[in-house]
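I'm stuck. Protein, please.
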Amino acid sequence: MDVHPFSPRPPSLSYLRNTIMPRVRQRWGLPLRSVTAEDDAGVPVADLWVITPRDHVTRDFLFRETFDLFHELDTRSGEERDLHPEYVDSRFFQDRPSVLRSCSAASGFSLTGRDLFVGDRVDVSLFDGGCLHQLEIIDAFFAGYEYGVDPRPAIHAGDFVVALSSGGTPTGLLVSRFWRAHEHGSLLFWHTPLLGGFEVDNIHPSAYAGLCTGVNGGVEGGALPVGCALRTSSAGSTDAFTVSLAFFSDDFCSRHGSSTGGVYMSYMTWPYASRVSRGATRTISLSAPGVNSDHSLDCGAVNPWLFKLSKVV
């Protein structure tokens, strides 16, 4: 490098290393935090250095280019969401409790590949050609031990039972067999107290008023749910952001024969085009040779450094 004779001398490498670089790291760098991984018995197994998700988010909020990505998807029109749906448009993000069935009294279930809810209406097709239309789901439960495991084609303990009604009057039970399903030819059968059981070919959501489900309001074909904002504002308080994170780890054997790997993070609430590059990945921890990278995730569950984002947003 050519240096003008009248220009000030550049700083020495020692000054850069010991003075300038620490200042840069302190102002813009990501802090490394020491954690200790333990096994199930509480015995320490490895000392790790990690960069917490909270520190990553804090730093990305400091720069306009990355800050805007946290709420960029809020600016899309309905047509853009239909043409190019993102992760934030999925039911898993918009209504996670119903997708995971995590509520205390589950009102929904999946049957023959369809999501159904109490209050929905279905058509039941029988193997003999008959079809029962516009039946409303009024309850769903697992048959208890009192039903027994009799070999006859009846309701058995452990079977999943859907109670249906017509016009407000209980009509019968749609039973998904758990016991002896292979002995009776079909997984589902229709049970009525007076007429006995009938083998069921399939069930379909009833199409009424253009809707297929009464609780979800879902339309045949899978219309996107109404989007919830990633950035919300309220009078007299700071803005709140919803940030969804995905963590992944890898381990591999290097040429020296020892195992190494790392744990990384991705912002799922960023636009897809902005999070598929290597630069969008955030490093949580790099494991030393011979140390399982899963220990970093275990430390997150114990310490809970994964769950400190509320202090940021």
